[in-house]
Structure formats: C-alpha cells, structure tokens
Amino acid sequence: MFSGIVETTGKVISVVQNGGNADITLTCSFAKELSIDQSVAHNGVCLTVVKCDSNQYTVTAIKETLERSNLGQLKTGDEVNLERSMRPDSLLDGHIVQGHVDQTGTCTNIEDADGSRYYTIEYDPSQGNITVEKGSVAVNGVSLTVCNSQDDKFRVAIIPYTSEITNFHNLKIGDKVNLEFDVIGKYIQKIASVYLKK
C-alpha cells in the first residue's frame, strides 16, 4: 500500500532480461536502508526487492508488468519515481495507491501555468477506467488531482516542487505514463456495470 507521495527518484543501473522477466537494478538515496522482500513502488508499480548490494538494489518485473506499464521501456540511466510502502503510523498525505497499474496513458499536451504546468494525459477508455473531476489518480506513482476530466483524457497540475523531486521534469509530449485509477472509483464502476446490465 502506498500514498502516491514520491520519496525520491532512482537511476536505472541495468536492465537484464531473464526469460520473460526483467531484473532491474537501481541506485537511490535510501538503497542502503532496503532489505530483501521489501516492497517499493517504481513509477507506481509495486515490485519486491530481490537483491541488495551497497548503494544499489534489484527488483524483478514479470512479463505482464512489463507489458502493462512503462517499465518495459526502461533503459540504463533512466530516472524512476520511488516510494516505499506506507507505515500504519504515518500520515496519508496523498491517496490510497495499491501499486497495481491499470493501464498506460500518453502525455499529449504540456501547458505553462505561470510557474506550474498542466499535463494532459490521454488513455484508452475501452478498458473501463474513469476519472472524475477533482478525484484522485496516480500518474507514474504520483498522487494527483484530476482536472478537466473527460471520457478518454484528463489534466493534472504539477507544481515546481513536484516537478523537481519526481521524473515529471523529464516528461515530454508523446511519453508513456503509468496510470492507477482511484480504487474506490474502480469498485463503483464495476458494481454499476454489473447491476445496470440486470
């Protein structure tokens, strides 16, 4: 369980294919504090630490994860948003994020907002995911508030601080992002789709 409040970014040291899986090795500021079996969100994807070595660590992403998220595009030197799992005694500053990416979206527009920036994210609505105005969404693991919610796209506003500490400062038009839609909204959508068919 995560909050969508990115702690830091990490740098990809290597990506090694292992059958359909990929072993991803990264370095970051809290790498020395990690232990094997610990969960860490990578661009919003919950992965388990399988190896720790000094100031770097390794996680394994399975084929489905690589295909469903943007982790399949990672290469050496890429910057990844990182968040360790929530503690029960900590404040929930973002929203409930499971680390289970629903689908990817594409950044289609970036607008200056007098210091901040608006990012437009388009996605395929045929997978049944929705946003609501002023609702929550995780984009590359970052908890954000939806604005201009439409059937197949939405906008989010990124303040300078968020841009600085996450990989949003590298995001360009055409880039693929990981999307995790609000868990409460997903259950409501599922219940409504089942009962409306009856």
Task: Give structural notes.
The protein has three helices and twelve strands, in the order E-E-E-E-E-H-E-E-E-E-E-E-H-E-H. It is mainly beta and 198 residues long. The strands form two sheets. It has a six-stranded antiparallel barrel. A hairpin with a 2-residue loop joins strand 1 (8-18) and strand 2. The radius of gyration is 17 Å and the shape is globular. The relative contact order is 0.19. The model has no long low-confidence stretch (mean pLDDT 93).
Which features characterize this protein?
13% helix, 198 residues, globular, six-stranded antiparallel barrel, mainly beta, 3 helices
In short:
The chain is mostly beta strands and about 200 residues long. It is built from 3 helices and 12 strands, in the order βββββαββββββαβα. It is globular.
Map the helices and strands.
Blueprint: E1 8-18, E2 21-27, E3 39-42, E4 45-53, E5 56-61, H1 63-68, E6 79-84, E7 103-113, E8 116-122, E9 136-139, E10 142-145, E11 153-158, H2 160-165, E12 176-181, H3 183-196
Antiparallel strand pairs: 1-2, 1-6, 2-5, 3-4, 3-6, 4-5, 7-8, 7-12, 8-11, 9-10, 9-12
